[in-house]
Amino acid sequence: MLNKSLINCCLLFFVWALFSCNNDPDADVKDISLSLDFVRTDSLMFAASDAIVNGGETDFQKVYETYLRPEKAFFYQWTGIEEMLRGRKISAEMSDTLIARNLGPLLADPHFFHLLDTVREVFPYDYPFEKEILPPLKRLIKYVPDVEIPAFRTHVNGYMPEGDLRSADQMVFLGNYFSFGLHYFLGPELKYYPPNIPQFQKKRFSPEYLNVMMVHEIAEGTVPPVDLTNQPTLLDQMIRLGIKQYFIHQLLPHTPDSLLLLYSSEQMRWADYYEARIYKELSESFYSIDFLVQRDFLTDKPYTTSLALESAPRLGEYLGWKIVSSYMEKKPGETLSDLIERKDYEAIFKAARYKPLSYE
Fold first, then answer.
1. pLDDT at position 204, please?
2. Long-range contacts of 350-356, Cβ-Cβ distance < 8 Å, separation of 24 or more
3. Separation of CA 195 from chain center
4. Beta-strand (E) ranges in the chain?
5. CA–CA distance, 182 with 323 (Å, rounded to integer)
6. Which one of 43, 110, 127, 149 is separated from 237 by 20 to 30 angstroms, measured CA to CA?
7. DSSP labels for 26-95?
8. Is 172 helix (H, G, I), strand (E, B) or coil?
9. pTM confidence score
10. Which residues of the chain have pLDDT under 50?
11. What is the pLDDT of residue 6?
12. C-beta separation of 207 from 122 below 8 A
């Protein structure tokens, strides 16, 4: 006769196993096979810089041949050498010499070596990049089967004093490569960022945004832009951004809405609480083609300038996402690929029959 406590333990294990299986966040893509071409090219840069700064190596060509040449194709594209070769501005024989001359002085800078070392502390060589980026990439294949997945790399650049977020190379798409600029994910309090980058944007410069910013970049390149020649309305811009945000949510379904919308948790609560008021405020300008009106509700800012200081920014995008989500709930037969190709924004708005929630 089986021991009663043994039976209880088995039952508990079975329940735990069943619960774990049912709560696997990536169960929807576990059968999708994807092998990533991923190389920590920033680690090659660190080894090269270490050889110069601490090893006393002065021959930049030798450093390049020893440490960087295995990823020659990436470094060619990242530095622009590939473009010069295509334009026949330099010969193939000159290319390796030129890249060594350009990268050598940067790698020899002790401050740059310190930056590479800081990156290594935040992202040690066993940092699980592939584990983090595989699920959203598998969902991309699930929803857009014809998509081509590029190779993934990492890089580190210096900081330009006059830079802003638009020049911050958090993500660089180089045709064959998608590269993470790890120097812009070192935490919001890092003192080396360009001083004129707004603090609300620096809050996104942390490792938890790696996936988010990658998917934002993918979505921006996947969802067709609004046709600016036809004088788009605020509603057109909102629905297009709503499609983009809905796409982002499908690729990262277990990530908090606040992160995906690039909101703080307080801004997310504010937007959800005042959803009905936001709709009323914006609906009066849905068909406006006024650039200033659109800028107020679509531009990345600390808050919406026409509303309270604690308001969430980019309320047009927030409301567009709500409208598109409502539309997709009512159109279960429409795929994400179908939605991405849609440009009849007003038809989506009308079919959504969106009713904002109100907690006031």
1. 93
2. 351/327, 352/323, 352/324, 352/326, 352/327, 353/326, 354/279, 354/322, 354/323, 354/326, 354/327, 355/326, 356/275, 356/276, 356/278, 356/279, 356/322
3. 22
4. 38-39, 151-155, 171-173, 177-181
5. 35
6. 149
7. TGGGTT------EE-HHHHHHHHHHHHHTT----HHHHIIIIIGGGHHHHHHHHTHHHHHHTTSS-HHHH
8. strand
9. 0.88
10. 1-2, 6-7, 9-21
11. 45
12. yes
Q: How many CB atoms lie within 10 A of CB 172?
A: 16
> Is the distance from CB of 140 to CB of 184 less than 8 angstroms?
no
With beta carbons less than 8 A apart as the criterion, state whether 156 and 183 touch: yes
Q: Between the CA of residue 148 and those of 81, 82, 137, 338, what are the distances in Å?
A: 24, 21, 10, 18
**Structural contact between residues 348 and 326, judged by C-beta atoms closer than 8 angstroms:** no
Tokens of 109: 């800078």
| Eight-class DSSP state of 203 | T
The identity of residue 21, as a single letter, is C
- Strands 177-181, 151-155: parallel, antiparallel or unpaired by DSSP? parallel
Rounded CA-CA distance 241/201 in Å is 19
pLDDT digit string, tens, across residues 224-266: 999 988 899 999 999 999 999 999 999 999 999 999 999 999 9
Residues 6+ apart with CB under 8 A from 243: 223, 320, 324, 339, 340, 342, 348
At residue 166, the pLDDT reads 54
DSSP 3-state of 297: helix
Matching residue, tokens 């530095």: 79
99-113 b/e (C-beta count within 10 Å ≥ 16 → b): bbeebbebbbeeebb
Cβ atoms 140, 147 nearer than 8 A: yes
The reported pLDDT for the residue numbered 162 is 63
DSSP letter at 151 equals: E
Distance, in Å, from the CA atom of 114 to the CA atom of 117, rounded to the nearest integer, reads 5
User: Distances from the Cα of 112 to the Cαs of 194, 206, 303, in angstroms?
Assistant: 15, 19, 35
Q: What are phi and psi of 172, to 5 degrees?
A: -130, 120
